[in-house]
Design goal:
InterPro entries: Methyltransf_12 (IPR013217), SAM-dependent_MTases_sf (IPR029063). It comes from Teichococcus deserti. GO terms for molecular function: methyltransferase activity. Keywords: Methyltransferase, Transferase. The chain is an alpha/beta fold. It has three domains: 230 residues, 3-Layer(aba) Sandwich (Rossmann fold), CATH 3.40.50; 63 residues, no CATH class; 87 residues, Orthogonal Bundle (Arc Repressor Mutant, subunit A), CATH 1.10.10. It contains 17 helices and eleven strands. The strands form three sheets. It has a seven-stranded mixed beta sheet, with helices on both faces. A two-stranded antiparallel sheet has the order 8-11. Helix 4 links the parallel strand 2 and strand 3. The model has no long low-confidence stretch (mean pLDDT 97).
Length: 411
Amino acid sequence: MDATDARLAAQYEAYPYPERDPRDEAKRLIVGSPSHLREVDHWIFGARRPASRPLRVLMAGGGSGDGTMMLAQQMASAGRPGEVTWLDRSAAARAVAEARAKQRKLENIRFVSGSLLDLPSLGLGPFDYIDCCGVLHHLPDPAAGLAALAGSLAPGGGIGLMVYAPHGRTGVYMLQDALRLLAPDSEAPPARVDIAKRLWKQLPETAWLRRNPWITDHLDGGDAGLYDLLLNPRDVSFSVPQLAALIEGAGLRLRCFVEPLRYEPERYLPDPKLRARIATLGATERAALAESLAGNMGIHIAYVTRDEAVAPDWDNPAAVPVLRELDGPTLAKGLPSDGVLRVTFDGIRLGVPLPRLASAILARIDGRRSIAGIGAELAKNGVAEAAFARDFTALRQALEPLNRLLLAAPE
């Protein structure tokens, strides 16, 4: 632990992050990426790991528990065996996370106090899946942190990562520089928060963070969100090439960015001459181009594996398609008449064309029917097998890159 790391540890004792009230667990479950159970099944295990097989999970830097509550609750609700290990060095964050788990009556969580850098000596692993969300960019040596996680993976396992990205955080680092002058880290955290709030109220309209609508932690994240964003003693962002190098350096393989569609530059550029040049780029270069073009990515979420990833088998008729946090029949009824699904990613509007049978297929996706079962039902309504196969493939190609249509784990 260096001096900066000591200040970081003190920050999370004063302001457990994110700011959460355990009583809110009675009203809602916070859901996101990485570590949604359906995403883990699909992107990490290729929808081939049986749901009946116990899943050993590590939340490395679990904080106040958003990811822990989500995954543990999803496992409990689905009757999935296994255990989620929460690991963090903040006693204040642990108190919040334990209170949230108690509110939900979750018994599949194990709480361990410590640093992910100590994993080799803690003897907790190996783990089938590891979540490391918002942690690596605060470490003295992110490469050492990711290497420690990689060394704790079981064969066939994977990691869900979230790190800050530079372009979408435009304005953040300027204000961090200003607050180092106005509120030095030698002062107590409450005093620094007070100065930061005063500065925000009087900030000139030309300040870039005022013009950045995608960063809101200082507005709706409470004192913990403001401190973490503007007063954090160590905050490093990673461009796509930098993150790719970090992943490769740890001996890991990138499975996908979330949502994959956002990292496809041709989605932003319809010009055929530009697309022809895009086609000559490698995967990392394409993703880097998309990041530079969009300019609104404040974070990168990635799923990575140590072993070569196994792709989901969409050609398996027994596979069961699922929608991530969407209801098939409701989505089917709401499809636009022109067959183009409009999606918005932090201000960028994109149209995703859907096939003719999209509504009929989506109405039958319920997490139980197999691909063959859906096709058989449509065949009774006069839909030819070839037409169903063509349109199901087109629907998958449209919605999988949105991280919406996935395959469920086999029973």
